[in-house]
Amino acid sequence: MSSAGPAGGAPSARPLTVLVAGGSGASGIAVARALAAAGHRVATAGSDQARITEAARKAGDGVSPFACDLAVLADVRRLRDDVTGALGAVDGVIHLVGGWRGAKGIADQSDDDWDFLERGAITTLRNVSRVFFDDIAASTSGRFAMVSSTALDQPAAAVASYVAAKAAAETWTMAMADGFRQASGSSGSPAAATILVVKALVDDDLRRAHPQRKFPGTTDVTDLAAAVVRLFTTPSAELNGARLRLAD
Ligand SMILES: NC(=O)c1ccc[n+]([C@@H]2O[C@H](COP(=O)([O-])OP(=O)(O)OC[C@H]3O[C@@H](n4cnc5c(N)ncnc54)[C@H](OP(=O)(O)O)[C@@H]3O)[C@@H](O)[C@H]2O)c1
Question: Which residues line ligand 1 (CB under 6 A)?
Fold first, then answer.
């Protein structure tokens, strides 16, 4: 971990507490593993107790599992109490809940798909940001990040609901960046809210399952994880309100 001081929003040398929100999948395992390897205390949260426990086991030492439905505000408030009690106040939240739904075009975009996307991509993000905003803003190395999609570059009819949900999540995250700017008066909070943009995520299991596929322009979950770790060693002035492209 960097030994840089807090001036200018650079990270402190103390171990940080980082919550991976939506940590049960390959991306969550990779991100939690990399954060723990960088010396951070990691809480990883998923909606299913067995899946998040297994994900934490795969991520290795220094990663603690917490079962929580991040779409339910009261549950996220309880999560904050549990994580703070176990690991200390949260310095960073990495939001990984998303989901994907597509259709043929505009007319067949369904309400079910919108409800699913709103819950996963927007509601969970609103909840974790509302509950953890003050903790992140108070940290000398506070960081919030979400993962968005290159599909927003040229919204396609077939993914109208998906890109609309992701755009809402991006806009909320930009509003958080403004919140961090305002949090400490004229000097600003050293915290940062950042959007990481990928085309698609890949991992070794996916490559093994499709040995003939090439996955052009995709981002390996280990590269996403490395980018997340770098958030905590990069001055917040370079990160707050930034949209960082990880795709080719
Ligand atoms: N995968 C891609 O190709 C791709 C492309 C562009 C952008 N992204 C973005 O990158 C991020 C990570 O992608 P991903 O595909 O790894 O994510 P994901 O599978 O959509 O979500 C990650 C984990 O979140 C958990 N989760 C879902 N709902 C939850 C809830 N209500 N409360 C708590 N946990 C919940 C799920 O585990 P449980 O069901 O066990 O809780 C899931 O394993 C997402 O924001 C996604 O939109 C991904």
Answer: 22, 24-25, 27-28, 45-48, 51, 68-71, 96-99, 120, 124, 147, 149, 198, 200-201
- The ranges assigned to domains in the chain are 7-245
Residue 2 has a pLDDT of 37
* Of 128 and 10, the one with more pLDDT: 128
Query: At residue 248, does pLDDT exceed 90?
Result: no
How much is the pLDDT for 15? 86
Note the pLDDT of residue 8. Answer: 47
State the distance from the centre of ligand 1 to the C-alpha of 81, rounded, in angstroms. Answer: 23
**Mutation probe of ligand 1 site: the residue of 97, 115, 125, 195 with most atoms within 8 A of C-beta:** 97
Q: Which residue has the tokens 């990663």?
A: 63
Of 19, 27, 52, best ligand 1 pocket probe by most atoms within 8 Å of the beta carbon: 27
pLDDT at position 188, please? Answer: 58
> What is the C-alpha separation between 214 and 216, in angstroms, rounded?
6
In this structure, the residue with its CA closest to atom 24 of ligand 1 is 22
Q: What CATH number matches the domain at 7-245, 3.40.50.720, 1.10.540.10, 3.40.50.2300, 2.60.40.10?
A: 3.40.50.720
Q: Which atom of ligand 1 is nearest to the CA of 24?
A: 43
Assess whether pLDDT exceeds 80 at residue 67.
yes
